[in-house]
Design a protein that fits this description.
Layout: E1 4-9, H1 14-24, E2 30-37, H2 41-51, E3 55-58, H3 61-73, E4 79-82, H4 83-91, E5 98-101, H5 109-117, E6 121-124, H6 127-144, E7 147-150, H7 153-160, E8 175-182, H8 192-195, H9 200-203, H10 213-221, H11 223-236, E9 243-247, E10 253-259, E11 264-268, H12 274-282, H13 296-299, H14 314-324, H15 328-344, H16 353-363, H17 372-395
Parallel strand pairs: 1-2, 1-5, 2-3, 3-4, 5-6, 6-7, 8-9
Antiparallel strand pairs: 8-10, 10-11
Helix pairs in contact: 2-3, 4-5, 5-6, 6-11, 6-15, 10-15, 11-14, 14-15, 15-16, 15-17, 16-17
Bound molecules: nicotinamide-adenine-dinucleotide and magnesium ion.
The site of nicotinamide-adenine-dinucleotide has 25 residues, from helix 1 and helix 6.
């Protein structure tokens, strides 16, 4: 059988490394064609030595130059590119069959869109791209024939529970709604006093999952779940009212599909991203992932309760943006990225994150976002506005 050529965007990150761990277990099935990262020369060079891809991209030119030299010294025959152009080039290579979109944040949009336009099978971890430009990505997929497979654990669970032969970007038959589970993050039971004193170190300790910093903070504010509600709406073509969020601190039931006859189908498993990643890589058949098997008798208790929308305001803000439509999800996503970045750099308090997003959304609730240019413009305006409000919060 011919090996499936893989292009891995964001290979040095948490999803990227998990993907390579899965690929390593199945050398007869996959060939790593291209790897990419932002500027981490050391990590990408180590991956290049191990996987010997034909292409590697570092977005920063200086870092790319460094990598080029190191590859030459090791006699590695790897073409090293740079910039977003480099990313857009590797996703479209003829020998690439599957593109794993695992860049964090809105930076993933352009390369993901290029992969979709090139008609590739796209394994989507980069939820922000779908939040910003869901309609655009789905329309591009319809035109090119690209298949979108969700890596995000909840959406992967939902996809696994969908009717036979279901494809993303269409409304599933017989489905009444979706139930997205959320761990609730590290501050699920924290008082307002504790929330007012959260440091980046505290916010980066997720109880169940080990992930990149941005998504870990998003989990702590529940914005991650908000982004996931938008992601689910786009992928499965349902309305906001058909998507419910339930807090499930054990992260064992990864989400549920509710059917019109009253049946609810769930996917369960240990919290290990190698499960959804391997499901996507080998879809429609299954292969081993290396994840530990789930023991229900060890888990013992599975609990579920509604989210506290007063304490965690990011979740209702995401619902509001979804209902507003147009550029509102892009605006929420962009202002969240700016606020989380500032919080991680010690420039803003944790509890100010939703306040900034709310102000920016109030200002820009009606921006057009049907074309890529309009989406990028909405993203830019929201970022500038978030910076402005942050300055006035801190010094005003
Ligand atoms: P991470 O921070 O660990 O890794 C991000 C990767 O993207 C790195 O390889 C980095 O070099 C690259 N990158 C960062 N900025 C870039 C830029 N401007 N241009 C190009 N490349 C850039 O993040 P992660 O936790 O692996 O998450 C990646 C994506 O997957 C996010 O969108 C996240 O929401 C989603 N996701 C992650 C998990 C998880 O378990 N980590 C689960 C579900 C969804
Ligand atoms: Mg998730």
């Amino acid at each position: 059988m011919e090996k499936s050529g893989i292009c891995l965007l964001g290979s040095t990150g948490s999803i990227g490394q998990n993907t390579l761990q899965v690929i390593q277990q199945h050398p007869e099935k996959f060939k790593v064609v291209a790897l990419s990262a932002f500027d981490s020369v050391d990590s990408l060079f180590a991956q290049c030595c191990l996987f010997k891809p034909s292409f590697a991209v570092l977005v920063q030119e200086k870092a790319a130059k460094d990598l080029r030299q190191r590859c030459a010294e090791q006699n590695l025959n790897i073409k090293v590119l740079s910039g977003v152009e480099g990313l857009c080039e590797i996703v479209a290579l003829a020998e690439v069959c599957q593109v794993v979109a695992a860049i964090v944040g809105s930076a993933g949009l352009l390369p993901t869109l290029s992969a979709v336009k090139a008609g590739k099978r796209v394994l989507l971890a980069n939820k922000e791209a779908l939040v910003m430009a869901g309609d655009l990505l789905l329309e591009a997929a319809r035109q090119s024939g690209a298949v979108l497979l969700p890596v995000d654990s909840e959406h992967n669970a939902l996809f696994q529970c969908m009717p036979k032969d279901y494809m993303t970007g269409t409304r599933p038959e017989g489905v009444a709604g979706l139930i997205l589970t959320a761990s609730g993050g590290p501050f699920l039971h924290a008082s307002d006093e504790i929330l007012a004193q959260v440091t980046p170190e505290m916010a980066c300790q997720h109880p169940n999952w080990k992930m990149g910093k941005k998504i870990t903070v998003d989990c702590a504010t529940l914005m991650n779940k908000g982004l996931e509600v938008i992601e689910a709406c786009k992928l499965f073509q349902l309305t906001p009212a058909e998507i419910e969020v339930v807090i499930h601190p054990q992260s064992i039931v990864h989400s549920l599909v509710e059917y019109i006859d009253g049946s609810q189908l769930a996917q369960l498993g240990s919290h290990d991203m190698r499960i959804p990643i391997s499901y996507c890589l080998s879809w429609p058949v299954r292969m081993t992932s290396g994840a530990e098997r789930l023991s229900l008798t060890q888990a013992r208790q599975l609990t579920f309760f509604p989210p506290d929308n007063e304490k965690f305001k990011c979740l209702p803000l995401a619902y509001e943006a979804l209902t507003l439509g147009k550029g509102a999800p892009t605006v929420v996503n962009a202002s969240n990225e700016v606020a989380v970045h500032a919080f991680l750099n010690g420039q803003m308090q944790f509890s100010q994150i939703p306040a900034i997003i709310e102000k920016v959304l109030q200002k820009y609730f009606d921006l057009a976002a049907s074309t890529l240019e309009e989406i990028l413009w909405a993203d830019k305006l929201a970022r500038e506005s978030a910076m402005h409000f942050m300055t006035s919060v801190n010094y005003g």
